[in-house]
Design brief:
Length: 222
């Protein structure tokens, strides 16, 4: 029998540091997942201005975006749920990188410029560390090679009642490929909070999704 998940908040509320929708929670609807994140996630006004300027298209001039894949906060949250990532720094780096990579329009100079800005100019709570940069570059490559659809232009508002599993299948997001990357990430950064959480997910049964190609991403992504 497939496991079921109830992510509704209890008392006390789960910490944002612990929040995550597991990869095998495929029967959960997108709306349920977003509702659970709303109890712990940042409000739009809490996101620093420099982060909004770089990552949120609402703050861009029409037709002008420095980095492909910019999305609004709730759109970004939906991608978190599909990729099975939490809210820690490496999680954010993966979600941003995978979203950018899904556009297949991000150049090497854009990847490096984004990482430089996020590593040097972002406020401390958002600043990328070397391990976050490693994950970011790997996520870009994984999305580029996976054959998934563009995530930045997909209208999640029309699919809130769809299950996470169905949305992954529609968008071509392979759980198997995610698990392979997460296992490599665990080996690269053992014992960290993100790796401990990913270890629990990586030990779940392999998905039966239709992954068309096996990405050849590796650590040399710079």
């Amino acid at each position: 029998m497939e496991p079921t998940y109830d992510l509704r908040p209890t008392t006390p509320l789960v910490s944002w540091r612990d929040w995550c929708v597991p990869l095998d929670a495929e029967n959960l609807s997108l709306q349920q997942a977003l509702d659970s994140l709303a109890t712990v996630g940042a409000r739009p006004e809490e996101v620093p201005l420099i982060v909004r300027l770089l990552e949120n298209p609402a703050y861009h001039f029409p037709g002008l975006s420095l980095f492909p894949g910019a999305v609004g906060l709730e759109h970004h949250d939906a991608i978190h749920t599909l990729l099975g990532r939490g809210l820690l720094k490496r999680d954010e780096a993966f979600v941003i990188g995978f979203t950018m990579g899904s556009t297949r329009a991000v150049g090497a100079w854009q990847r490096h410029l984004f990482c430089w800005i996020a590593s040097h100019l972002y406020p401390w709570a958002y600043k990328l560390r070397p391990e976050d940069v490693w994950v970011f570059h790997g996520a870009v490559k994984l999305a580029e090679q996976s054959g998934c659809k563009r995530l930045d232009t997909f209208n999640f508002d029309l699919c809130r009642q769809a299950s996470i599993g169905d949305l992954r299948q529609h968008l071509g997001i392979s759980v198997q490929n995610l698990q392979r990357f997460y296992r490599a990430e665990i080996r690269q950064f053992p014992g960290t909070p993100e790796s401990i959480r990913l270890q629990n997910m990586a030990s779940t049964k392999d998905s039966t999704d239709s992954s068309h190609t096996r990405p050849s991403w590796h650590t040399q992504t710079h």
